[in-house]
């Protein structure tokens, strides 16, 4: 038997090069329409309607109290709405909230000042009329200063009785301060018609407000203009 001899070195099949080949440049695929596979798009922002409403109401001071309270309510809900990343307008809501608080506080302070300046005078005059209408001249005298005489009160009590019952009343303060003021009162009677009373008041530390003087006028309303007729009192 013949024995095969191995092939000499280097006579085998050729070696395949092992170098790394870079992949060919492939152009990227064009982007598809919105909503198909693109999950990284930022949501479209919108402004909170409550924040805008709060800001507008906070700027409006023409309606006492109501616009301020509404601005506060819408401002709170606007701030809550802007917690979402998709909703903007937080500064509008905060500004409207602050303006609403300022408006409510301002009108409340003005109402308190008006109450403390004029309301005690109204209460005094109402008690004055109530005492005279019931014939309690002594009670009405206690509400007056020393310049008002008993004869004046008796005359007004008699006049009030002849005019009948009161059907409507109204008043307006011409001036007022911590020391005194004037008050005009109009009352309509069943028999006497509309009557205007002008009071001069002063503030006494011990008795609070008191009536220093008063005058009465009869107002006859015509189609052209009202005419004021003075009523004679002692």
The SS-based structural class is: alpha+beta
- Strand percentage lies at 15-25%
Report low-confidence residues grouped into runs of 5 or more: 35-39, 220-234
Number of helices: 5
Largest sheet: 5 strands, antiparallel
Counting DSSP E segments of at least 2 residues, the number of strands comes to 7
Helix content bin: 25-40%
Based on the structure given, which CATH architecture of the domain at 134-230 is correct? Roll
- How many angstroms separate the termini? 170 Å
* CATH third-tier fold name of the domain at 134-230: Nuclear Transport Factor 2, Chain: A
Instruction: List the strand order in the largest sheet.
Output: 3-4-5-6-7
Order of helices and strands: EHHEHHHEEEEE
Q: Name the average pLDDT.
A: 78
Based on CA atoms alone, the radius of gyration comes out at 45 Å
Shape: rod-shaped
Main CATH class of the domain at 134-230: Alpha Beta
Provide structural commentary:
This protein is an alpha+beta fold and 234 residues long. Among the domains are: 46-110; 134-230, Nuclear Transport Factor 2, Chain: A. Helix content is 38%, strand content 23%. The protein is built from five helices and seven strands, in the order βααβαααβββββ. It has helices at 49-59, 66-81, 90-133, 137-141, 150-163; strands at residues 46-47, 87-88, 166-176, 180-189, 193-204, 208-220, 227-230. A five-stranded antiparallel sheet has the order 3-4-5-6-7. It has a two-stranded parallel sheet with strand order 1-2. Helix 1 packs antiparallel against helix 2 (66-81) and helix 1 crosses helix 3 (90-133). The radius of gyration is 45 Å and the shape is rod-shaped. The termini are far apart. 20% of the residues are buried.
